[in-house]
């Protein structure tokens, strides 16, 4: 009987149904419909979160300022952010205490390596997905994960579910545009409705199996089964809300459908589309990973991004690497420009004021394959910014990067003081 239930769970996973979801902070269907049709003053300025990462970090000698506090001088890699100096904070000596080089970079938003996440509280869930879990079905897309699906280790591996499943990325601006703005055909909607109906019937069968099994279990096993029931009910709720979203038209696209040009040249379009997805409240959580699918030749550089990250302290290689990283920072700054230019309805602020934008990496120094001293920038979100905050560098006084994540989750509205390896919130980070 137990084997039969396991097979059921495998079938559900294959059908796109996750049985280990936490309790969703979901609205009732009627409330969800009303929220889709109109905007209340309470919902006029929701918190949002965007997480941006790359696989190879930033060249330390070109990234880190020598000074801390508000009077620090912008380094070559930070100069494109000069117009936003008062709108972001730079953090030094924050990391997850991980080792493993490239195999640890995928813990950037989780605090743990994927291979070691099983059995841990939270199951190796990433920061963005914890926030998406809180949003639930308040938006059409609880989150949008964007990036290339090829390159080192198979491409983008930044977003992870509570069950330790990697979320495959949306691979380009064309696909992202269609996801956010293009309604399914009548036939497509029918197929989606049929799929939801099938998943619902599978859940009914699973519940029937579980109920018949419950009478034969010990008290401890019965408690585990009750947790299982709770997970199944959460999936039922999600399926019901997914069906309701099929009836809600997507927003009208304010731009034409873009073409895919490769990740490097796609960055401006991807950032613009993320801003539009936030502006239209299609989602409140987005991630963008700049993986090794970023082809440097698109920028006129005839050497590979990964190879240049292992520069061996060769001056010419460092200069080319900094060119690549400078381009990424320029596009990040342009994204902040975009968010700042969008007025938040019913407020005196901008979209940036209510959007936490995290930029960083799980790699500290790619040349030496170290995962400490991660390059971390946080912009917007209503925090007090304008400083380079330097935390203790000595090992017995290190501050976990996950403390920043707890602060971000609390700002997002999640009532928690825990996330992965966090020991609390991040001292020194204050609201404006």
Describe the structure.
The structure is a single chain. With 432 residues, the protein is α/β, with parallel strands linked by helices. It has two domains: 290 residues, Alkaline Phosphatase, subunit A (3-Layer(aba) Sandwich), CATH 3.40.720; 65 residues. Helix 1 runs antiparallel to helix 6 and helix 8 runs parallel beside helix 10. The N terminus is likely disordered. It starts with a helix and ends in a 20-residue tail after the last helix. Strands 4-5-1-6-7-2-8 form a seven-stranded mixed sheet, with helices on both faces. Strands 3-9 form a two-stranded parallel ribbon.
How many distinct domains? Answer: 2
Strand content: 5-15%
CATH class of the largest domain: Alpha Beta
DSSP summary, beta strand count:
9
Helix/strand-derived class?
Answer: alpha/beta
Biggest pleated sheet: 7 strands, mixed
Q: Give the low-pLDDT segments.
A: 1-43
What's the CATH topology name of the largest domain?
A: Alkaline Phosphatase, subunit A
Q: Order of helices and strands, N to C?
A: HHEHEEHEHHHHEHHEEEEH
Distance between the termini: 57 Å
Average residue-wise pLDDT? 84
C-alpha Rg, in Å?
22 Å
Helix content: 25-40%
Count of alpha/pi helices:
11
Major β-sheet strand ordering? 4-5-1-6-7-2-8
Which architecture of the largest domain does the CATH hierarchy give at level 2? 3-Layer(aba) Sandwich
What is the global morphology? globular
Question: Helix and strand layout, with pairings?
Answer:
Layout: H1 2-14, H2 29-37, E1 48-54, H3 60-63, E2 88-92, E3 94-95, H4 127-135, E4 144-147, H5 173-181, H6 186-214, H7 219-245, H8 263-279, E5 285-290, H9 305-309, H10 315-341, E6 355-361, E7 376-380, E8 388-390, E9 399-400, H11 401-412
Helix pairs in contact: 1-6, 5-8, 6-7, 8-10
């Amino acid at each position: 009987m137990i084997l039969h239930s396991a097979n059921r769970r495998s079938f559900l996973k294959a059908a796109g149904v996750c049985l280990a979801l936490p309790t969703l902070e979901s609205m009732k269907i009627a409330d969800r419909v009303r929220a889709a049709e109109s905007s209340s003053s309470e919902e006029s300025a929701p918190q949002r979160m965007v997480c941006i990462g790359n696989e190879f970090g930033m060249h330390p000698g070109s990234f880190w300022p020598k000074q801390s506090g508000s009077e620090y001088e912008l380094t070559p890699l930070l100069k494109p952010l000069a117009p936003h100096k008062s709108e972001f904070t730079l953090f030094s000596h924050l990391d997850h205490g991980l080792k493993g080089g490239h195999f640890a970079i995928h813990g950037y938003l989780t605090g743990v390596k994927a291979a070691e996440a099983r059995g841990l509280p939270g199951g190796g869930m990433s920061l963005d997905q914890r926030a998406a879990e809180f949003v639930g079905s308040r938006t059409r897309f609880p989150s949008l994960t964007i990036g290339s699906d090829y390159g080192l280790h198979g491409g983008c591996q930044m977003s992870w579910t509570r069950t330790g499943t990697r979320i495959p990325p949306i691979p380009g601006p064309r696909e992202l545009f269609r996801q956010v703005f293009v309604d399914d055909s009548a036939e497509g909607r029918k197929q989606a409705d049929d799929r939801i109906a099938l998943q619902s019937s599978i859940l009914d069968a699973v519940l029937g199996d579980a109920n018949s099994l419950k009478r034969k279990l010990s008290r401890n096993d019965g408690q585990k089964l009750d947790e299982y029931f709770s997970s199944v009910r959460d999936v039922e709720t999600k399926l019901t809300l997914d069906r309701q979203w099929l009836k809600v038209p997507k927003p009208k696209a304010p731009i034409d459908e873009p073409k895919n040009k490769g990740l490097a040249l796609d960055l401006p379009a991807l950032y613009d589309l993320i801003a539009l997805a936030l502006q239209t409240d299609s989602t409140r959580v987005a991630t963008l990973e700049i993986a090794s699918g970023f082809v440097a030749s698109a920028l006129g550089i005839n050497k590979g991004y990964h190879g240049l990250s292992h520069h061996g302290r060769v001056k010419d290689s460092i200069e080319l690497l900094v060119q690549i990283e400078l381009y990424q920072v320029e596009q990040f700054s342009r994204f902040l420009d975009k968010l700042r230019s969008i007025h938040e309805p019913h407020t005196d602020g901008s979209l940036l004021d209510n959007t936490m934008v995290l930029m960083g990496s799980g790699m500290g120094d790619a040349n030496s394959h170290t995962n400490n001293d991660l390059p971390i920038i946080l912009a917007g979100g209503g925090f007090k910014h304008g400083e380079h905050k330097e935390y203790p560098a000595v090992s017995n006084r290190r501050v976990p990067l996950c403390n920043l994540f707890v602060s971000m989750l609390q700002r997002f509205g999640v009532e928690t003081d825990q996330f992965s390896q966090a020991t609390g919130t991040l001292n020194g980070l204050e609201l404006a």
